[in-house]
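Task 17 of the worksheet. Students: predict the tertiary structure of the chain below and write it out as structure tokens. Keep your answer in the requested format; marks are given for formatting as well as content.
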Amino acid sequence: MFHLKEEFNFYIITGNKDLFSTEPHKGIKSNEWNVSANGEQVFYFSDGHFSWKNLAALLKDTVYDCIYLNSFFSKRFTIYPLLLKKLKRIDKPIVIAPRGMLSSGALHLKSQKKNAFIGLAKLFSLYKNLIWHATSAQEEGEIKNIFGANQTIYKISNLTLPPVESPTDYSKQINEVRICCVARISKVKNIMFALEVLQTIKTGTIVFDLYGPPEEANYYKKCTEFASTLPNNITVSFKGDLQGNEVEQALKKYHLFFLPTLNENFGHAIVEAMLNGCIPLISDRTPWRNLQTQNIGWDIALNEKEKFTVAINEALQMNQPEFETTSKAVQQYALTHCMDVANIDAYKKLFS
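Model answer:
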């Protein structure tokens, strides 16, 4: 929205707390419009105030030209608006971004429930006559595979903001590496896989800090228990969630960003990590490919676990000049992408 604020007025309707959080965001007013730092109007629904009737009333009282749904399965902020459109309570165009939720990796988790919903949604034409926003050719293919080839799809990569301050501390000693991950502690993010890779590394000093809320209590427990069994040269800390304004400063402290995800349609956390100087060590299931050939990190197939071990050992052996050179190249690569004028123009066309 930062890149488009001079062209469009944005009204954002969302919940008043983060996923899995029990506390509302600080410094906001729930159930009324707030003005954000960049000028967008934001309406934060509290749990007690949200209902499809209140959502319908809010939309009726708001002047807008189209609706953008930033999820596929969200009950409140995707399914309810689609039902309102089905009931003719909404007569404006709807753009929907599935955000990777239609990938085979994502649909494999809780597959029966998700496939049953998709079947019913197709039966009742819930997703008919929508404009789709795909962030990659892969996601475009996923949409067509499920809903048919005649869908209206705009393929536009996501936009991200450059960091407020560029990293200046590139300190790096041989045989030590600081690694972070900013993601939900969940199966789709493949956190256990990351810990299993670290188990294979017996030398060097490794710090692995994970920032993000636990999605499933049992999976989180399994991860923390496994982390406690890792060799003494590895320190793993589950740091909990970060506020949005805390992420940038946190990322600047690390050499590597480790996310062997099952699927990312874009990977905002990956891009933000790169913008702040972290070298990505990721799976091959994101749009960020061929990193090794550009000397800006690693994207590795999940069935080649040993290559993740090799990558971390390579990172361990980096000295300060080597890390600084690679880190700056990573930053420039990400910065070039997030300021892509062609992408910005494509969004202007989509919303126009």
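Marker's comment: The chain has two domains: 2-160+343-351, 176-338. The radius of gyration is 21 Å.
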